[in-house]
Design goal:
By secondary structure, chain A is mainly α. In chain A, about 65% of the residues lie in helices and about 5% in strands.
Chain lengths: ~450, ~450
């Protein structure tokens, strides 16, 4: 009977710290029996998390001690860099045993990020038929539906009835994992619909399959982008869907668990990109992380230098009125913050297809007005602060005016820049932040120092 | 037979602009037949998107013209504020028709965000049994598994065999939506496992149900947080799972489509919170959006004023060396950016339970070293820029030193602050950004201007 995994997780499904402690202890002591016993209590996905969270030396020792008992189901759940590390360390026979137990899409997942020679080694452990089918999947473009689908699925002729379907299924040995629908195909193996198993079971034997096909049916093509596939799964609440080749022939099936992974990865990616972080994970090496973040910091430096060049033009003004130097970060910071708010909403809405041609103008107007309203409100507040602080009405007026202008521009650029990037086929999550900050910094410093110059030096 | 929805969407599933145009045209012309014809070609989720993307006047006219044909399945797919607007506008009889067609969890979804009197009105349209079951669900806490589950599911005694199960299912009229497993219960109606329909169909009649129960089985309690439920669905690749009350009795079932919605909402929330945006959507009214963003801008203003107070302490230094005012934003900006990188990785990793007690120290060390490495690299670059720009070795040295210190502190605070907030039971996505920026701003200005003071004024 099934065990509940929550036993070794705390109330919110984090791995129990004491449990991890015991596992590491058994590794330390070289106690193989204890280790196997403890790991058996964990779900393969939790073992993968555990392996990701411990250090590389502990990981190597654990894998070695685990030995023959190694659970192959752990491999598809690991981060790419850890997969590579573990595959490197597994002896050839254990690797070949592990790969034998995986489904086609899992093998693809496993080998697609390996070095070519290591990839060859894994493929060599497969028999000819399996190797051919994995190699076929590997030929589909990266991030395509073809790479995501499994080739194990159940298809039945569309002209069959329920009785024929049930008899066929009951006589068939070995049904695939994640099997919740039968696909209906025409004589050219093109999918024409799918029937949920529940519907199949509760219908009379003489009922035609096509009359109980699901209303929500979508097909994907092998070279379609995984992100779009995952979006359709979410939007139409799909559980599984057929994938077809250029001729429309059924090649495989994508299931919801794969789609959920893609959605999750994509959400992480967007969040990371907005903050100037690439595709990194906690288990990456320090030097790789530092290198990864470098280009974003360079982009930020370029923006900051541009802002400094603007400030430099007003050196004489600042020398005359030092208060300007004291207050100028407030203007730029409020602009940057308001701009980030707009652009984040825009980037997310573009990703979820909520921001489209139909409502772009409405949203642009909205963000501009929001920028103006909050600009006016904060211009009053910040103007007040300036007045109290320096007791100068002129300085306060300059500050207030600069805040309105900057926050209005922040709203406009925060929405326009992601939309324009999207039209230019650049991922708005990737570049919006740098562009918007550049605009708000330059506008902020220019407005504040420029007005300061006009008021105090002319 | 099923239609494919992709027909009226472009290659990446955005609603086709021309198609929306035709719909709005038919609304404009008051052509009810054309409107119904066009809407029939759209999936209910796409109609919901369409309603969200058009303006409020167009929306009201469309709903009115759609009239009797109104598809109730659209309601659960809408954003809360639009649901409210549409429910307000539907005549009582049409509303009652619509609600009759929905499942229990959908009705809950529909009414939970309505004003109390409007909620009462919708509940009044239900018959007594349905009303009691919806009210029971509404009694569970907000964001709990109880609110998420549906009360329609199939349970069978754990001691039955496959034959008994199949006969029961085939004799039963009306099986629930999203039905892919039968739940096994003991004599006290406590779930003890679940059997996938595929497994049921392909097993011999005399096989015991408990011997083919799924390995991956998790139960949730009615008051468990939806986020944790969704996490478990993703982590363990679940399709459906039982929800139990305090006594462990089966009360309902959560299905993967609900879990996907929660995951999606949560990803949006984290992204929004990091950028200082609350739970807003594109269809919110301007004044609501402005109000929502206000508190975050206030927090940012407080940070900016703190930074200004630091700068003010060095007014004399700036007056003497204006170059310091020109260059100081570079230091603060690099620190802010590096800090944002660290904290975003941390917030995301905490949300996905990848950052836990087991690896916190390793990750803190990692972020500190990354901060130091990139700090050293950029100190050289920025020091070089300062030297070329102003030709002063002293200024360049001050700049370089300030950059190292600030970027190191950015790395440390970027990882420590989210971890500490999480321990203090504060959502790290909510507050990390403000705290980290405060640290990097103050450290940046203090280090740069302080060193400047020491080098140039003493």
């Amino acid at each position: 009977m099934a065990t509940s995994y929550s036993d070794n997780r705390d109330s919110s499904y984090s791995l129990d710290a004491g449990f991890i402690e015991s596992i590491l202890e058994s590794v330390e002591n070289g106690d193989q029996r204890k280790l196997s016993e403890l790991l058996e209590q964990l779900h393969r996905a939790d073992i993968a998390d555990l392996l990701e969270q411990i250090g590389p030396e502990e990981r190597a020792r654990l894998i070695e001690l685990w030995g023959e008992e190694f659970e192959p189901g752990v491999l598809p759940e690991l981060n790419d860099n850890i997969t590579e590390e573990i595959v490197e360390s597994l002896p050839a026979d254990r690797l070949s045993n592990a790969v034998r137990d995986l489904e086609s899409d899992q093998v693809v997942d496993l080998v697609e990020d390996l070095e070519p020679d290591r990839q060859e080694e894994v493929l060599d452990t497969l028999d000819d038929v399996r190797r051919a089918s994995v190699e076929k999947l590997l030929n589909y473009p990266d991030e395509s539906a073809g790479r995501l689908m499994q080739t194990e699925f159940v298809m039945l002729p569309v002209h069959w009835n329920v009785g024929e379907a049930i008899d066929h299924l009951r006589s068939r040995s070995g049904l695939p994992d994640g099997f919740y629908h039968v696909m209906l195909i025409d004589s050219r193996i093109r999918p024409t619909g799918q029937v949920a198993l529940g519907k199949l079971m509760s219908s009379r034997r003489e009922v035609e399959l096509k009359s109980i096909a699901e209303e929500d049916f979508a097909t994907f093509s092998v070279d379609q982008c995984q992100e779009d596939v995952a979006y359709a799964f979410k939007q139409y609440r799909l559980i599984s869907a057929p994938v077809v080749d250029e001729a429309g022939r059924l090649m495989g099936a994508v299931t919801i668990d794969d789609a959920v992974n893609v959605l999750d990865e994509h959400a992480k990616e967007d969040m990371h990109l907005l903050a100037g972080v690439g595709d990194e994970s906690l288990s990456d090496r320090i030097i790789d992380v530092a290198k990864q973040r470098f280009p974003w910091l360079v982009a930020n430096l370029a923006t900051a230098v541009l802002a400094s060049i603007v400030i430099a033009q007003f050196s004489a003004t600042i020398e005359a009125v030092v208060a300007l130097a004291v207050l100028m970060p407030i203007v730029a910071s409020m602009g940057g913050n308001a701009g980030t708010q707009s652009l984040t909403v825009a980037v997310r809405a573009i990703a979820t297809k909520d921001l489209t041609n139909s409502n772009a103008w409405r949203v642009i107007r909205r963000e501009s007005v929001v920028g103006l309203i909050n600009g006016l409100v904060f211009s009053a507040i910040i103007g007040g602060i300036g007045l109290i602080w320096y007791g100068s009405a002129a300085l306060s007026a300059v500050l207030a005016a600069a805040v309105v202008v900057t926050m209005l521009m922040a709203g406009i650029s925060g929405i326009l820049i992601p939309i324009l990037l999207e039209r230019a086929k650049v991922d708005p999550a990737l570049a919006s932040s740098t562009f918007v900050t550049t605009v708000t910094d330059i506008v902020g410093f220019l407005a504040f120092l420029g007005l300061g110059y006009m008021v105090f030096l002319t």
